[in-house]
Design brief:
Blueprint (H helix, E strand, L loop, with lengths): L2 H5 L13 H14 L6 H8 L3 H7 L6 H4 L4 E9 L4 H11 L3 E7 L6 E9 L7 H10 L3 E10 L1
Antiparallel strand pairs: 1-3, 1-4, 2-3
Helix pairs in contact: 2-3
Length: about 150
């Protein structure tokens, strides 16, 4: 099922303890497959004691809550050299990765250094977070990048 089709459906938040056993086992099997703990659907359903037909019946209809939540946030902390245009260049890299800047906090530069904290929405990010961090660290004026927090 395509993402657009999924989002057109009505969803309900249901406690795990009231889900039918086959749905719980389907979620477990899907997680094993996603994490690479098993190589095939057959291996996954065998491990959770579920029929393949039940797995295929529910696989596109039951999801962990965190996979439906779309907004992803990350907060990054930077130590930057105080040079003209550094913040603009930094924001250019962030924007080109598909992130949306939510907040910016920059300290007054002292002794040629400034601290910047960015809160980003990474929902539409075109690259992995590790790649974004690597690009930011390669910038000559960036002395340090830390992930302060992330979540939905």
């Amino acid at each position: 099922m395509k993402e657009e089709e999924i989002l057109d459906k009505k969803f309900y938040l249901v406690r795990e303890d009231v889900l039918p056993e086959a749905m719980k086992k389907t979620l477990d099997a899907k997680e094993m497959l996603e994490r690479g703990k098993v190589e095939s659907v057959w291996d996954a359903v065998q491990k959770v004691d579920l029929s393949r037909s039940a797995f295929y019946k529910y696989r596109d209809t039951v999801f962990p809550f965190h996979t439906i939540v779309k907004e992803r946030l990350i907060t990054l902390f930077f130590h930057l050299e105080d040079r003209s245009g550094t913040l603009s260049q930094l924001l250019g890299v962030v924007a080109s990765s598909g992130c949306n800047v939510l907040t910016i906090h920059q300290t007054i530069p002292l002794q040629g250094r400034a601290n910047v904290t960015l809160s980003l929405n990474t929902t539409d990010m075109a690259i992995e977070i590790e790649e974004l961090l690597a690009r930011l660290r390669r910038m000559e004026f960036v002395e340090k990048v830390e992930v302060l927090g992330s979540g939905a």
